[in-house]
Specification:
Blueprint (H helix, E strand, L loop, with lengths): L14 H6 L19 E3 L5 H16 L4 E3 L6 H6 L5 E5 H15 L10 H4 L14 H10 L5 E10 L2 E5 L1 H7 L7 H4 L4 E5 H15 L5 E5 L1 H5 L2 H4 L5 E5 L4 H4 L3 E2 L11 E7 L5 H13 L2 H11 L7 H11 L7
Parallel strand pairs: 1-2, 6-7, 6-8
Antiparallel strand pairs: 3-10, 4-10, 5-8, 5-9
Helix pairs in contact: 2-13, 2-14, 2-15, 4-6, 14-15
Length: 329
């Protein structure tokens, strides 16, 4: 059984373990010990796609001979790892950078740290203010340059859960709407659907950056945000979604060009504690991250949503076997 660690220590293990962990994507990290000697606890958010990712990483660890279990879903899984309540989580790169930058500065004595803001670390597409102006490559580079004590940022996958804006083909054709640059004069006759976590920041970006003031803005529930029913049913004409949403290609929706500039990039990245984690666990986690492409996160999203949805655990297993990442039972 895993013995959960003390609450977050800001000045713990020191620089030796830190130097032993690689902090650049594509480089194998090397903790001080070869083998993981205890059960690792993984934690993910409550949505089905996050849970599928959690099960996939747990399975890849178990396939490598490492005891691992997936904890109950958390609204703020990143905070759970930082508080010592879990060992591994997978999150978007901008959310990680926004939170871990503050932690790194606190460890260096530059700032004080406190609880993370759930709105900045959960919910697809939330845009941390400090990172929204960085592109994917810049975000990844800054994230892997952070100097952390007791935690390590592992390889960043190619797959992203970055926010975007979508419209139906009919709305696009009927309004000559293909890019966010077309939105300004059209917004007064368009209804937007936006999730709670995106709402304040995105409406500000639309107003200040594009002079876009929608006819109405509907705050979408988590259930509606997970799919694309609001836009395909014409409840709204523009829906904020994410690039991982399989409903976009499955319903031939139009992704507005330039929409990525309104959202912070969220490339999928694993964060782990360094306490008791061996080279074997890091290698297994990086193996999965290296195989996780954009089409894979879309496929996992498709597998766990819709009328014939699988359980996240089943979806993760089927995907891992299909990718030949684990052996079929």
């Amino acid at each position: 059984m895993n013995t959960l660690r003390r609450p977050l220590r800001l000045l713990g293990v020191g620089t030796m373990l830190l130097a032993l962990f690689a902090c650049t994507s594509g480089t194998e990290a090397g903790p001080s010990q070869v083998s993981t000697d205890r059960e690792l606890v993984l934690v993910q958010g409550p949505d089905a796609t996050s849970q599928a990712l959690g099960h996939a990483y747990r399975s890849i660890l178990e396939d490598a001979g490492i005891d691992a279990r997936l904890a109950e879903p958390a609204q703020d899984p990143l905070a759970a790892v930082l508080a010592g309540e879990a060992d591994v989580t997978v999150a978007g790169s901008s959310r990680l950078l926004s939170t871990l930058s503050k932690l790194s500065e606190a460890q260096e004595g530059k700032t004080e740290t406190g609880p993370t803001d759930p709105a900045a670390t959960t919910g697809d597409g939330a845009t941390p203010v400090a990172t929204r102006d960085l592109d994917t490559a810049e975000t990844t580079r800054k994230l892997h340059e952070l100097r952390l004590t007791d935690f390590a940022v592992l390889d960043t996958a190619e797959a992203e859960r970055t926010g975007t804006l979508v419209v139906t083909a009919a709305t696009s054709a009927g309004n000559a709407l293909v890019s966010i640059s077309d939105l300004g004069p059209l917004c007064p006759k368009l209804d937007f659907g936006i999730s709670r976590t995106m709402l304040a920041q995105l409406t500000k970006e639309l107003d200040e950056g594009l002079s876009c003031r929608p006819r109405a803005v509907t705050e979408l529930s988590d259930q509606k945000t997970a799919g694309v029913l609001p836009v395909i049913s014409d409840e709204v004409q523009v829906q904020a979604s994410t690039l991982s949403n399989a409903g976009i290609p499955d319903n031939a929706l139009v992704v507005l060009q330039g929409a990525s500039t309104l959202f912070a990039p969220e490339a999928i990245t694993a964060l782990t504690t360094t306490e008791g984690v061996g080279q074997d666990a890091v290698k297994a986690i990086n193996k999965l991250s290296g195989a996780l492409k954009q089409e894979d996160i879309v496929q996992l999203n498709r597998m766990v949503n819709g009328r014939d949805a699988m359980t996240p655990a089943r979806a993760a297993t089927d995907w891992l076997i299909d990718k030949a990442l684990v052996k079929a039972p």
